[in-house]
Design a protein that fits this description.
Layout lengths: L17 E3 L15 H19 L14 H15 L11 E12 L6 E6 L17 E5 L2 E4 L6 E10 L5 E5 L4 E4 L10 E5 L23 H10 L4 E5 L2 H31 L5 H29 L19 E4 L1 H12 L3 H11 L5 E28 L9 E7 L22 H21 L8 E7 L7 H8 L8 E7 L9 E5 L7 H12 L2 E5 L8 H6 L4 E5 L18 H20 L21 E2 L2 E6 L2 E7 L4 H5 L6 E5 L2 E2 L3 H9 L6 E8 L2 E8 L1 E2 L3
Parallel strand pairs: 4-5, 6-9, 9-10, 10-11, 13-14, 13-15, 15-18, 16-17
Antiparallel strand pairs: 1-20, 2-12, 3-4, 3-12, 5-11, 6-12, 7-8, 12-14, 16-18, 19-26, 20-21, 21-22, 22-23, 22-24, 24-25
Helix pairs in contact: 1-8, 1-12, 2-8, 4-5, 8-12, 10-12
Length: 698
């Protein structure tokens, strides 16, 4: 699921007379029909095989900028073909080509360079000294990189000014220290050289905090400040702590690739002698991994010098940005030493210790540089398989889709900042892709019994994590006209069912969808949480905006979302098999009903529902508009904080509590380990306590 900031939505409240927050009771599930146990067992096996492959370390998180995403696409295409779908709609293949803009890349090497020449101030020429040193020059990937956070192109030839950390802070720390690297120095028309981060990093006594970054450490803040002071370009110099972290990250990547090669060699040993195709495939994987290591070794050398990657400071968000260059720290040190007789480290330490700026114009130094950035395009593909229609409904379409891309090794889209590790994406969204394939398998067999039904198009979308790119591509270039498309079912994060709660979005996007969902669920008995809107941060939105009714199946956000911990061993395969059956049943009902659903407008406001993971350890009793603690679990978070049975809940955080559902709503938006301020009335007197939330059992 694409990460996005969403508006709040007022969820329906469910009243309950008594609620035990330790464990929500799941109702008794209906008895299995004859043959269902065997079929569900087979479905579970398919789900497990598909999810474990798609979420394996070998696929490196299925990022669209990584070539291994094509292995995922090939796998899905072969699975569709084996199931019995038509996989020939795109020049005899299942692959609809998709181009995804993934930021910026450097232009030609000759258009990305920097040179620093000490000159005679009167003539702007090298001083008349036979021993004059040649200019200090750096080239693309060898001491400098243009940064994507800056302007796409530019040239400069002029003065260079060192501005410390590039910070202007009127009030810092408890003593309201005034700190300004630009005080008393004119940078108009000059290029400014600045240090990354802020003074006193890692010093808990620093007025800038030291333990964590203030806003003054952010790249965007520094660049905007340079623009405000009239500079024409920024040269960024990395700090020692970040350099060390960057080196460790690169070494970690190299180690992971070497481990991958070792695993492939082990698999090769297990192959029989006649497995020529498999052997060739494994050998090619080794070649690819070795190429990756070679590239990473080059990146490691750059990291040691402190040169940032092109996108490492982020993408451009400043409207009138100036060019920004990352310069090797050793090069910056050479320039500063030649200019003022002090090393970069000495200048840096002086600022950190005194909390006083130390800015200066480089005397008799002329800087010249060129920058060129071009859009970076990743070639990827949607994977499409078609179950043809029959009879009178044959020319109408139902779409069942799920995205198969994820966030790769971290960086873009990751909620574990600074972590370089495989983000396996088992729930997001190997689970949805596998469920789509399993539903296709079910429908291929079931629809043989129907003389008339709509065609069903199964699509594994790419580029969802980059802004629904794959689904937008399909909507703009569908296999069959969208005018003939009766509905779209989207599956995104359906592998972590908890408390038997299944969320369906889009139930109000057409006149009959709510009824169809309820009739289907009469058999499966999920605790449905229905949301009318057809909008949301996943691929169904692309279809809904084009006038197609939608349903979006979802089991809720959790603490592993967009983190390296979203692994296959956390998938509830039995529950995912049940969800698969309901998806197939809803798709079947849509495929065979005589009348297609009638599209309806819904409100464009949606909030994505979180699973309940925090634990407070109380039992509640609703008494009119009052909520009373009927029991407090011994040793639980509430007990440790001092809450007692009989206390009347008044507030949790800023939320007024009127019923037990209010408590659930607050806890859904909290995480274990967070401190929750609780206000109760005890013997008529207000009592405020801080509860450290625990991890919900089970």
């Amino acid at each position: 699921m694409a990460s996005r900031i969403l508006h709040r939505h007022d969820w329906p409240r469910r009243q309950c007379a008594f609620l035990v927050l330790l464990l929500l009771i799941v109702g008794t599930l209906p008895a299995e029909r004859p043959g269902e146990i065997e079929r569900r067992s087979a479905t579970e096996a398919d789900l497990r095989a598909d999810i474990e492959f798609l979420a394996s370390d070998d696929l490196r998180g299925r990022g669209v900028t990584d070539e291994v995403i094509h292995q995922a696409a090939d796998y899905i295409g072969k699975r569709m073909n084996k199931i019995g779908l038509d996989t020939t709609k795109f020049d005899g293949t299942p692959f609809q080509q998709v181009q995804i803009t993934v930021g910026a890349r450097p232009g030609a090497a000759e258009n990305n360079s920097a040179s620093f020449q000490f000159v005679d101030s009167a003539s702007n020429a090298p001083p008349p000294d036979v021993n004059v040193a040649p200019p200090v020059e750096v080239r693309l990937g060898e001491g400098m990189n243009p940064l994507a956070i800056g302007a796409e192109n530019g040239e400069f030839n002029g003065p260079l000014v060192f501005v410390g950390y590039g910070i202007t802070a009127p009030k810092i720390g408890p003593e309201n220290l005034k700190y300004d690297d630009y005080a008393g120095i004119d940078v108009k028309g000059a290029t400014v050289m600045m240090l990354r981060k802020e003074p006193g990093m890692n010093d808990p006594n620093s007025p800038f905090d030291g333990v964590k970054n203030t806003r003054h450490a952010f790249f965007v803040t520094k660049i905007k400040n340079a623009i405000k002071h009239g500079a024409t370009g920024v040269i960024m110099v990395n700090d020692p702590t970040s350099i060390l972290q960057g080196v460790q990250n690169q070494r970690s990547k190299i180690a992971q690739e070497r481990e991958r090669i070792e695993r492939i060699h082990e698999e090769l040993k297990k192959l029989p002698g006649d497995a020529k195709n498999s052997r060739a495939s494994f050998e090619q994987k080794i070649v690819n991994a070795e190429r990756m290591i070679e590239s990473l070794q080059n990146d490691l050398q750059q990291a040691k010098r402190g040169v940032l990657g092109v996108s490492e400071a982020g993408e451009r968000t400043i409207k009138d940005a100036m060019p920004v260059i990352s310069l090797a720290r050793d090069t910056a040190d050479e320039l500063i030493t030649r200019a003022i007789g002090k090393t970069l480290q000495e200048v840096e330490q002086a600022i950190d210790q005194s909390m006083q700026p130390n800015s200066f114009v480089f005397p008799k130094l002329r800087a010249s540089w060129k920058v060129e950035l071009l859009p970076s395009i990743a070639d990827s593909e949607n994977v499409v398989g078609v179950l043809p229609g029959r009879g009178q409904l044959a020319e109408e379409t139902i779409i069942v889709g799920a995205h198969y891309d994820h966030v790769g090794m971290g960086g873009y889209g990751s909620l574990a900042p600074g972590t370089i590790a495989v983000h396996n994406g088992a729930d997001d969204n190997a689970s949805g892709t596998a469920t789509m394939l399993a539903a296709a398998n079910y429908l291929v067999e079931t629809l043989k019994e129907y003389a008339s039904h709509r065609r069903i198009v199964f699509v594994a979308f790419t580029g969802e994590e980059r802004g629904l790119i794959g689904s937008k591509r399909y909507v703009d270039n569908p296999c069959f006209p969208l005018e003939t498309t009766a509905a779209m079912i989207n599956l995104d994060m359906v592998g972590r069912l908890r408390d038997n709660e299944l969320t369906l979005y889009g139930t109000g996007s057409a006149d009959v969808l709510d009824e169809i969902v309820d009739r289907s669920n009469a058999r499966f008995q999920f605790k449905l949480f229905k949301v009318k809107t057809g909008y949301g941060p996943s691929d169904h939105q692309s279809f809904y905006k084009a006038g197609v009714p939608v349903l979006f199946f979802f089991t809720g956000l959790h603490n592993d979302y967009h983190r390296p911990t979203d692994d296959a061993d956390k998938i509830d395969f039995a529950s995912t098999a049940r969800i698969t059956e309901m998806v197939a049943d809803v798709a079947l009902r849509l495929a065979v009903r005589a009348q297609r659903p009638k599209y309806a407008e819904t409100e464009n406001r949606v909030s994505i529902r979180r699973q309940l993971t925090a634990f407070i350890g109380v039992s509640l009793s609703d008494r009119g508009t009052l909520v009373v603690l009927s029991a407090v679990n011994e040793g639980g978070p509430a007990d440790v904080a001092g809450l007692k049975a009989g206390d009347q809940l008044d507030r949790l955080g800023k939320q007024q509590i009127k019923n037990s559902a209010d408590v659930l709503e607050v806890l859904r938006n909290r995480s274990p380990g967070q401190i929750l301020k609780v206000r109760v009335f005890r013997d008529g007197q207000p009592v405020e306590l801080n509860v450290k939330l625990g991890v919900r059992p089970g």
